[in-house]
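STRUCTURE:
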């Protein structure tokens, strides 16, 4: 199995990574909002949100490893675990937002629920981007000592060949 750590790819800049994050994570999040709404018609909303969050986190972590952060391959178990931690925090944010909505509105419509869910997801998504970029998919930078050990050796000083003109000049002969 190929891992993200087994390949060396150049990581995209912060702006490019955020744009990719919005496309990948936002696309998965948008699809998830419809999945939560559909599943919530059969089960309690928090359970529907938990199930959809688990599946969408697995999918999004793979997309982020392969595309968003330029890791160069499949996400590792460590990356999935760390991403799940940030997704758990996002789950809490979306559940809290929906709980507040239901406290303020006895019977909110589907459009209002979607607007609140997507807004809370977007807020949590920005925080997740920071965590994923700085922790989960962070590039390990070599320390100065490691860089010095792996640097190419300095070229050896090779004396230039002595030419007859140089020999005459060095010996003082005219």
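SEQUENCE:
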């Amino acid at each position: 199995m190929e891992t993200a750590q087994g390949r060396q790819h150049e990581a995209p800049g912060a702006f490019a990574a955020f744009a990719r994050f919005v496309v990948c994570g936002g696309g998965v999040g948008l699809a998830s909002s419809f999945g939560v709404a559909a599943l919530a018609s059969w089960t309690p909303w928090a359970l529907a949100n938990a199930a959809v969050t688990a599946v969408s986190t697995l999918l999004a972590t793979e997309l982020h490893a392969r595309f968003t952060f330029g890791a160069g391959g499949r996400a590792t178990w460590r990356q999935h675990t760390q991403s799940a931690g940030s997704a758990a925090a996002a789950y809490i944010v979306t559940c809290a937002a929906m709980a507040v909505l239901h406290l303020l509105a006895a019977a909110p419509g589907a459009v209002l629920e979607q607007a609140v869910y997507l807004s809370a997801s977007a807020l949590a998504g920005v925080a997740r981007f920071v965590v994923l970029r700085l922790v989960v998919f962070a590039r390990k930078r070599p320390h100065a000592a490691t860089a010095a050990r792996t640097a190419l050796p300095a070229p050896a000083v090779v004396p230039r060949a002595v030419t007859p003109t140089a020999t005459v000049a060095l010996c003082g002969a005219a």
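REMARK: Residues 61 and 80 are 6 Å apart (CA to CA).
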